[in-house]
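Q: Hi! First time doing this. I have a protein sequence and I read that you can turn it into a structure. Is that right? Here it is:
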Amino acid sequence: MQDWLTDAGLHIVSTSDHQIDVTGDSASIKRAFGTSLNQYQVKGQTLHAPASNVVIPASVAGTVLGVTGLASSAPTVKPTYVPLTAVAKVTAKSGKAGLATTPTCSTYWDQKKATGAPVGYTASTYYDECSFKPSQLRQAYGINQTGLTGKGATIAIVDAYGSSTMLADANRYATSLGDKAFRKGQYTEYVTPAQWNSLSACQGAAGWAPEESLDVEMSHGLAPDANVVYVGANSCNDNDLSAALAKIVDNHLADIVSNSWAGIMYSNQAGDGETATSIDAYEQIFEQGAVEGITFDFSAGDCGNDSPAAAATGANCDPSTTEAQAEYPSSDPLVTDVGGSALEVGDAKGDYKSETDMGTLISNLTANGKGWSPLPGSFYFGGGGGTSNYFPQPYYQKGIVPSKLSHTLMTGATSATAQRVTPDVAMNGDLFTSVLVGFSDGSPYSVGGYGGTSVASPEWTAVQADAIQARGGRAFGFANPEIYDRFGTKDFHDIVNWTAVNGQPPLSAVFDNGLQNGTLNAALVAFGRDYGLVATPASTTPPVSARRTPPTWSPTTASPRAAARQV
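A: Yes, that's right. Below is the predicted 3D structure, encoded as structure tokens:
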């Protein structure tokens, strides 16, 4: 196959068992693939695409899954996180509402009453919880009680590019919060800066540095003795991300892979979305990983049902979306789709109280400090997922996901066949139950709150590493059958539904980041208000309008019971 490409004049950049990356001029492309490249004007953009279908020699056709990269492409994936400081400033001046004028938060759910706050959804509200550190998450999710640390397991993390100070930042972060730094050789990374591309289109290496820090620090924080391998893709484009995943399976670098990125499948932007060829390429890797005993976890996304209406006000949405949809690769039946929740701890000790689904509405403090506007608030942030119109229902969801859900597409249309429904599990990820992240990447080291299903994916991956230790070091491999086998057991919490479906007022809190340049940065947050998706208790059949898998589970502990089960 390489002879065919080089004889056409193409230059081979890299090869693996899964793909060959080549570059070349238009003449070489025509000799290799039987088509020229034409330029087109689309919405003011100059784009290129093949003038006709690709043709390849019969001698290699049996080994070619597909050809990608001949058309102009826009990045199809994005990191699924948002910094807490991204909350928009409001216009009320100091003192008008009687709220605190210095950043204020609660150590546990209802610790600090927001005295002087205007009435919102309930007669009184409390300041939102302070950003969690890993030790608090270990306590809330029962990891401390098990004594499990992920010893003997290896976690891989895939993002685009790579922070220049990752290991030093992770060690500083851990030790400053009372945890252990990485041991020598416990953290490994594979990055190739000389091959990085699409930097402008992909938010640049600096734009991905917080994501990498978040993923590494959460994985290490909840499984402090697990080995961590970071594999940085050369861009946020599918070909580079799939190459990073292929490197892991080709070299069996890990037991579990956390991926805090996802993208929409259907877009009005040229080159965006997913093609059948790229999906086939990903699935080849997932299948090989399953055979090798490697688990793949993906973030579900932060834009609710990813509809254009959700994207109109959502903080981490793709505005090019054309319809309500489940993101990819997270919706693939061969991976575990990790959704988000809002975690409530019940006391100063930090024990678990409850979780509701990750979905928040925001109301700003009015200029006179006497009310919130709008009320109800606008959709701001929410966990992704839903019923896929692309993938049929996998066998492990049969008999667990209600028929009304699997047969109702996100557009409201009825499907004749049962379809894949996501997410499969959920962990804390709401922006207003954020986690602390520390990083520098060439700038002064800083620590701040971050939220998103980017938080949930490495959290869940770490819990799986702890469970691998409980299994005597045996990896799960393709984990979804094991997850659904535990339906209805005490291995998982059920998400508490705080939506209007059950007649309860919204679970709410006041976000107060104090004065910024003389302006009081405060907002009323309503939890459990995802856009187009409704978390439903596992013990009841959801209404047709529900779009999220019942149950949207959250783990109780990395239960030693797992040691008795195998894939």
